[in-house]
Amino acid sequence: MNIAILGVGLIGGSVAIQLKDTQFCDLVYGIDRNEDNLNKALKIGFIDKKATLTEALAACKVIILTAPVDAIYSMLPDLLDQVTDQVVIDMGSTKQNILKLIEDHPNRGRYIAAHPMAGTEYSGPEAALKDLFKGKMMVYVAATQTDEDAFDLADSITERLEMRTSFMGAHEHDMHTAYVSHISHLTSFALALTVLEKEKSQGRIFELAGSGFESTVRLAKSSPDMWTPIFKQNRENVLEVLEEHIKQLTNLHTALADENYEELHRLIKKSNKIKRILK
Amino acid sequence: MNIAILGVGLIGGSVAIQLKDTQFCDLVYGIDRNEDNLNKALKIGFIDKKATLTEALAACKVIILTAPVDAIYSMLPDLLDQVTDQVVIDMGSTKQNILKLIEDHPNRGRYIAAHPMAGTEYSGPEAALKDLFKGKMMVYVAATQTDEDAFDLADSITERLEMRTSFMGAHEHDMHTAYVSHISHLTSFALALTVLEKEKSQGRIFELAGSGFESTVRLAKSSPDMWTPIFKQNRENVLEVLEEHIKQLTNLHTALADENYEELHRLIKKSNKIKRILK
Fold first, then answer.
1. DSSP-assigned states of every residue in A88-153
2. Which residue numbers delimit the Prephenate/arogenate dehydrogenase domain (chains A, B) (predicted)?
3. Rounded Cα–Cα distance for residues A271 and A217 (Å)
């Protein structure tokens, strides 16, 4: 069986590496708007040949979508028009708008919305990693609307990636990812901007940057080409979480401005409850 | 030579472990308001005996202050009153108020303000680690006001901790730490509060928590007993940074609310410049 990876970056490359390593597929076809990335992917070796979408549909049983979410949104209806018995697995980070877009498509059953909760702050083909997905969660969204054979094939890929699985509705998925993933990125972007703003006048500021700073701001290395579309596709949920986050920061600010240290202590102690969730 | 550790937690314990390992000292005296922590420190073995401040001053050449910064602030004038030729090393995270408090003290020269830029999100004697300080930065603040022999002794401890060194004024130190350390903690506390707030109604939210979320929220495990005093002692700088951070988050919010994706992309791309600072 041949597979196609549409978007040969961190996620697509990491999937391809694992599917090749486990002999899941014969050939991997790479599709990407960026010719440089295709050449890099060929050189690294996780794709076997460059292809157009039409060529890939003719040769492959599985098309895995790992392009930025707005690109997936734009091309999915056309892609489904051309599908017969192939399986299209969408591994993007937002689902609600996309599912709505194709809910009445005659080939809806060949499409599966699957979000692997894994990644790094790096992007592009060179960022692809073996074992990126191992032990992480694959979230299937609105999975009951997918044909059984298509779901089974997608799930056998999830098994090869050694992932755990979870099932959610589209709204639930997009809201939860806003809370546990998208807001972390916004926070890091804002923190980086805050510190870079100050650094203009105070060049030595980074002598002091310790490991706490690094871990909090690490995600600010993430690609704007990937993240702008995510925020766009998940706009309402992200705005809601961002408003809550600004509110919580403002509460901390008010406690400190008012020299209400009892309240500040209480808020910090309350935030410590996150211990129970983290390892 | 005997040394005393006032505050037998993460920092004090980690210092003691290293000074024992390198045979820098004979006995380590532990001083702490918390009897449980003293017993734990004895059991772990990084202190040799429990002591009062008076006993420690009689028996030790070096007193290392690793208590919360408000405790250091409260007891420092009394401590300096009793000092003769001992060396008092303050390893707290804020310096400006404390230095102002003792600037005219006759024994000012026996005191050295040193801030090791190292730590973890854990606290207490069990959190103490060998090699916590290795390769990290020790910042000396207003070091020219310390007697030369006292500075040399403090610096020989810094060498045993295998740290690099940097010199700053008090204002510069407190402002820079607000930017690269204190704000990271506030951000994490607020992020934890944001997510915990939502979780009340949505129990499954943490199924999705990936590594990005974990690294951003990790600092929210930090102790309120340690951090409330830091924010109190560095209140003005922290308020300034927090205002800038809320402003940057608000800019991101405005761009998204206005569906101005060009601006959102520009802000994210600008934040990527943090790459140059991080490894």
1. EEE--S--HHHHHHHTT-TTGGGEEEEEE----S--SGGG--TTSSTT-EEEEESGGGS-HHHHHH
2. 1-279
3. 19
Category of B112 on φ-ψ map: left (φ > 0), alpha (ψ -120 to 50) or beta: beta
Which of B134, B184, B263, B264 should we substitute to test contact with A (largest number of A Cβ atoms within 10 Å)? B184
Q: What confidence tens digit (pLDDT) does each residue in A179-206 have? A: 888 999 999 999 999 998 887 766 677 7
- Contacting residues of B for A219, CB less than 8 Å apart: 212, 215-216
Alpha carbon of residue B166 to chain centroid: 16
> Is the CB of B272 less than 8 angstroms away from the CB of A193?
no
Mean pLDDT of the region A219-247: 95
In this structure, whether the domain defined by A3-168 belongs to CATH 3.40.50.620 is answered with no
CATH homologous superfamily of B173-276: 6-phosphogluconate dehydrogenase C-terminal like domain (1.10.3660.10)
C-beta separation of A178 from A238 below 8 A: yes
Q: Is the pLDDT of residue B52 over 70?
A: yes
Among candidates B189, B216, B267 on the partner chain, residue whose Cβ is nearest the Cβ of A267: B189
Q: Which residues does chain A have within 8 Å of residue B186's beta carbon, measured at their own beta carbons?
A: 249, 252
Both tokens of B279, joined, read 């490894």
Q: The tokens of B81 are what?
A: 């009153």
Q: What fold does the segment set B3-169 form as a domain?
A: Rossmann fold (3.40.50)
Q: Are B62 and B153 in contact (CB under 8 A)?
A: yes
Q: Which residue of A has its CA nearest to B262?
A: A228
CB B249 within 8 A of CB A187: yes
- Structure confidence at residue A279 as a pLDDT band (50, 70, 90): low
With 70 as the cut, is the pLDDT of residue A68 above it?
A: yes
Q: How far is A110 from chain B (nearest CA, A)?
A: 25
Residue of A nearest to B191 (CA): A245
**Same fold: A3-168 with A173-276:** no
Out of A119, A196, A228, closest to residue B274 by CB: A196
ipTM (interface predicted TM):
0.90
Nearest to A249 among B137, B208, B245 (CB): B245
Q: What is the pLDDT of residues B157-211, one digit of tens each?
A: 999 999 999 999 999 999 999 988 899 999 999 999 999 888 776 667 777 776 6
Q: Could you tell me which residues come within 8 angstroms of residue A206 by beta carbon, excluding any fewer than 6 positions away?
A: A199, B180, B277
Which residue of chain B has the CA closest to A221? Answer: B272
Name the closest residue on chain A to residue B245, using Cα atoms. A194
- CB distance A245–B209 less than 8 Å? no
Question: Which pLDDT value is given to residue A202?
Answer: 64
